[in-house]
């Protein structure tokens, strides 16, 4: 609903005329109750801002700061990322690398979140990083910048969704292994669990956004409550604890498991545990068109997600690492999880040492599983809104932008992302290297899409060619230094996560993240040169569509959602 189109209600009735003394926005009925009037005005202001960016509102606004924070916090999900990749961190760097890489990564990621928050406040649209790249880039290259950002963002989103759901399947298998020693789902069983949870997420995402908001509020409560319970119970269950010298100072290289005996190199690779977990916090930006006071709500949600996750995650890692009972057997193929799940093995060792059985470990893992399911469902919300925005702008086939007329949810985009997540699952089954590659490409794709608008914003500020008009949430004089630090960290991560993770390098041990990232870049450039440059000129706003309509004698659509275009 755009400005000036607010639906008139019924005439006033007795008892409702008191609201007439309050100043009202144009178009708001004078008999609307005070609370509803406030919501009405907020939505009208948000919709007016969206219209000024060239889009007609299509989605229902029902998110506030808590629900916006909840969706990003749920996607980051320390109970998913740190649980699933704790073994990778332990294998490549040991306890000290796990404990110290987290706050370091959180500090740099906070700079990225702040830079993204400034852009989000100025341009609160579902397109997120893709729209921002177009908005801040020099005019000569902004369409190409948006195009490349779009494809890296989609790659990252699919990879993150796949990584979360694979972690759920692996945690589910580990829980059964502890309950039934010797049990294994096998590759087929793992894929079955993965496929089932992905489809369930698709069904959940067909609900109106109000129910998704409720789910995310439940999720953030579940994450915090389970983390608190875990951090109290696990140290209490473990009969012995590691000394601080082990937790904060013990380094383990991957010389036996991955052939890497260089301490610095091995420790750097362990940072994937932290940085993969710290993805998806910009989801609040993609929910901007479904949020109230989006220009301030979404930026605050982005940065609060990183800070809150940073605190919760570090407590979680400390509780786990101090509670290690048998550090020498965590990676052994002869242990209860077959050496495949270090985190579950930590819980198993503590439970058996205290009680003589695995019941406590099973209970703790069972508490973590719902958090991982919440994370996958929320990640799909994020991914579907991104694809909806791209399809609305005809960067991908326009039929993917279809919105259900009653629920106002992008149904088709949701199921396309479900299918894409299913498609990349098979290579991960039974292969740690493939899972590492998928989590690496998810991290690389996500951070390149974050880094593109930040780097362009930095470039135009440094060379004084910026036309950027800050929103109400901005960095002021700190914008340039924060953007510079954020750009450095993105480039560093990209270089790090394409390096070999196993030596010597063979076709079986090659880190395919670099090849996948390169393939995405080459494919996007080929599509651009061959076709896209002829019809894609960035966000397909209603303003552009009106201009095309005048040129071609057609009718412009309302808001770039169904109008004529030369695109797909």
According to DSSP, the number of beta strands is 0
Overall geometry = globular
Secondary-structure arrangement, i.e. CATH architecture of the largest domain: Up-down Bundle
Write down the secondary-structure element order. Answer: HHHHHHHHHHHHHHHHHHHH
CATH superfamily annotation of the largest domain: Amino acid/polyamine transporter I
* Fraction of residues in helix: 55-70%
Structural class: mainly alpha
Counted up, domains total: 2
Characteristic key phrases:
Amino-acid permease BAT1-like protein, AA/rel_permease1, Amino acid/polyamine transporter I, 568 residues, mainly alpha, single chain, transport, 2 domains, disordered C terminus, transmembrane transporter activity, globular
Strand and helix map with partners:
Blueprint: H1 34-52, H2 65-76, H3 78-92, H4 94-122, H5 129-136, H6 142-179, H7 186-204, H8 209-237, H9 244-249, H10 263-269, H11 272-277, H12 283-286, H13 294-322, H14 342-355, H15 359-392, H16 411-423, H17 432-462, H18 479-496, H19 513-535, H20 542-552
